Amino acid sequence: MFKFLVWCIAWSLILMAVAATFAAGCAVGQA
To answer: Highest taxon of the source (predicted)?
Structure first.
């Protein structure tokens, strides 16, 4: 159970980092 929770949190952080990088790339591309 604990390992599953850590796995979910880790994936959430990874997905947020990818989304932030993608958003930054779009902002730079439109600038």
So the answer is: Bacteria
